[in-house]
Amino acid sequence: MKGALDLYKRILASGALAVLCAASLMTASQATPARASVSLTGAGSSFDFPFFDKAFSVYQSSHSVSINYQPIGSGAGIQQFTAKTVDFGASDVPMNPVSELPAAVKAGGAVLQIPVALGGVSVAYNVPGVKTGLHLNGTVLAKIFLGTISKWNDRAIKALNKKVSLPDTQITVVHRSDGSGTSYIFTDYLSKVSDQWRGLAGTGKLPNWPTGIGEKGNPGVADLIRSTPGTIGYVELAYVIQTHMHQAMLENRKHNFLVPNLKTVAAAAASFPKVTSEKFSIVNGSGKNAYPIAGYSWALVFKHQTDSTKGKALVNLMKWTVTTGQKYAKNLQYVPLPSGVQKLGTSLLKTATF
User: pLDDT tens, 174-186?
Assistant: First the structure.
C-alpha cells in the first residue's frame, strides 16, 4: 500500500494533482470525520481514485462513517477483497468468472459487482516538439506496443500526421507493472483492432508485454511519461487532464479522430446500453463520436454482510455513490453513470442481506 501512496504523494509534491486532491492525501481517502461510528476500508482501482477521493470525502462529511480507500490497482484490490482484509474492492474489469470470482465466492459467498464509475483511457505521450495534433489509429498503436514501430518518425506514424514534424527519436513504451483494470481496458481495445496483438499478447490485467517499461498505478505511468521524452503510454483521463499531459487523437470505427472527453466517452457508453458484469466491454464502439478506449469500473461487495451495522453502512455508501455521488464525476473528467447503469447498480444492492 505504501508504494502506491508514495506515487500519489510524489505527483502531488510537484503540484500536478493539486486540483484532484485539493485537501490532502492523508491515507488514501481524506480525513476521518468526527465521531464516526463505522469505519469502512476498500482497495483496488487507481482509475477510480480521483472520483472516490472526492465522493467519499463528501459522503463521510455528512454521515457517521469513515472511509479509507487504497488505490493499489485492480488486481491487488481483488486479492485483498477475496482475503477479506477490506470491506470492498474496486476493479476496472469485473472479476474473472473462472478464477477470481469462484475464489471470492468460496471465501465470503456471492459477490455483487456494482458499476460505480465511467471514464476514458488516454493515450498520453511526450514527444519533443509535438504538443498537440498527434493522430494514431489502432493498427499503429498496436505496433508501437508490440515494439515493431520503434521510432517516432516511422513512416506509418508520419502517414497519419502529414502536417506534424516528427523527430527521429526512439519510442519508449510505458505500461503498468501491476495487475490493472486499466490495462485490461487498453489491451481489450488492442485485441479488437489488431489480430497480431490478440495472438501475441491478448487481453488481461497483467499481460505479457512485448516491450516497454512498467510502472505501478496510473500515477506511476503518468509520472514517467511526463518526465521522459520519447515516451507513450495509457493513463486514465482524469490524470491526463489534471496534470496537463499531451494525449493523442485516436481513430474510431467511423474514421473520426477523437480525444477522450465527457462527450466522446459518453458516446462510447451509448454504443453499449446494456452492460452487466458478464457483458462489460465498451471499447471500439460504433458511434460516430465514440472514443474507442473507455470502460466502467466496478465495486466488489459481498452479497451477505456478516456485520449488520457495517454492512448497512457499506450498502448505503454504494447506493449513494452510484446515484447522488455521480454529480461529482464531471468535474473530475468522469462521465456520470447513465440512468440504466445506475438502476443496475441500485437493483443489485437491494439484494444484499445482513
Answer: 999 999 999 999 9
